[in-house]
Design a protein that fits this description.
Order of helices and strands: EEEEEHEEEEE
Number of strands: 10
Oligomer: single chain
Distance between the termini: 15 Å
Strand content: 35-45%
Number of helices: 1
Helix content: under 10%
């Protein structure tokens, strides 16, 4: 299958280049923290609302969309096994290499209204080259795992309107 749908704005950046080599660990640090409460004392935090994956000629694009602008920070690791957050149970994704993303800047839904905003699609999306697994939010860190046949080069960027974290993985 070729993956889930994506909008034209998701195709805005160029394909990954060979100079964007994958590192065992990378991170992005936000310039400043977002405000967690609005003027009425309600939580005013972003939530993951969409997860999409689509094949392109030379790369696979994964898009994580958020409910509002936020200062995202992320760290990546290559893991031997994909594990659930908190409990540490094995997630059977059927691949040999796992690129894990720990993303701060998104929140754990705490109320029914917040839960209604949070992504409700499949936890697992597959394309011909990788498996995307939305591993939930634990202690306000969103976990997303990309399973693939080998370590591959990748590039991470952000787009706005709406706020998105874009992961391009070289085929």
């Amino acid at each position: 299958s070729s993956g889930a749908s994506s909008s034209a704005s998701d195709h805005a950046s160029a394909s990954p280049s060979s100079s964007d080599a994958a590192a065992p660990v990378s991170s992005s640090v936000p310039e400043h923290a977002s405000q967690p409460f609005d003027a009425n004392g309600r939580r005013d935090v972003p939530f993951l609302t969409q997860v999409r994956a689509a094949e392109h000629e030379s790369f696979t694009r994964v898009v994580l969309e958020f409910s509002k602008p936020t200062h995202l920070a992320w760290a990546t690791t290559w893991d031997q096994e994909p594990l659930t957050q908190g409990k540490g149970d094995l997630i059977p994704l059927g691949k040999s290499h796992y690129l894990s993303f720990a993303i701060s800047g998104s929140a754990t839904p705490m109320t029914p209204a917040e839960e209604a905003l949070y992504y409700s699609g499949s936890k697992r999306l597959e394309t011909s080259s990788l498996v995307v697994y939305e591993n939930g939010v634990f202690e306000d860190n969103l976990s997303v795992i990309l399973g693939m046949d080998r370590q591959r080069e990748f590039r991470v960027s952000t787009l706005e309107n709406p706020m998105r974290l874009v992961i391009d993985v070289v085929k």
